[in-house]
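Subject: mismatched residue count in predicted assembly?

I count 271 residues in my input, but I want to confirm that the predicted structure covers every chain. Input:
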Amino acid sequence: MTTPPGDGRSGGGTPGEEVPIASNDDVVRVRQLVRTAAAAAGLSLVDQTKIVTAASELARNTYAHGGGGTMRVEQAAGERGRRGVRVVFTDAGPGIADVERALGEGWTSGAGLGLGLSGARRLSDEFDLRSEPGKGTTVTVAKWGR
Amino acid sequence: MEHVPILKIGDVLLVSIQVDLQDQTVLALQEDLADRIVAAGAHGVIIDITAVDIVDSFIGRMFATIAAMSRLMDAETVVVGMRPAVAITLVELGLSLGGVRTALDLEEGMRLLGAGAAAAVAGAP
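Triage response: the counts match. Full output below for your records.
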């Protein structure tokens, strides 16, 4: 069995732990960690799929546009005690100059469809994007049980 | 990086995705398929995603790219076995895959691609 680069630094991610996103394999690992946390939080299969898909988009952004970074996933409680998961992506990349535009449909900085950020926002119950040009970007998404 | 195996049944190429798709694997599959369509003289491509639990915009775009690419080489593509949760998520993501033919399962997909292929999968007399 081959060990992908960037792996073996942790036991696969304890909840709340920061996990590096430094390769395409790490993007796959982010999906798996978010899936595990979402299932443990009792989200429905559809809601699990939505938050994992959102996380996949954001992890790819962190890797491809942010030059790599980290992801942290934790179980959390929302309004009226609803259980769910919160996922935070952080990079120290070039940042996003025009956040409003970046969140718009079809806007793309690369070869993609421009669905990454806007799609991740639609798939999440909570979405927060903070970015400073030259400093980096932090995106937080959350999904709550029904 | 893993390569997804491409099987041949009659004049149809069958790709059944059983791994967590990494972006490089997705790109390699597109190129492998283009080569195999020509080499095999295939007229149909079936991508089975029964085992795929998420399709994000990158993976979704692969389906559209493969469909367009194979059409240029005289082959029809059908994506089969999409899970309900994946379909719901794709629509909300904003990806409706308008140009991609789909079928509920492999058997339906083979039927869409024509009787010749369906006979091949039916196999033993």
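Chain B has one domain: 6-115. Marking this ticket as 'not a bug'.
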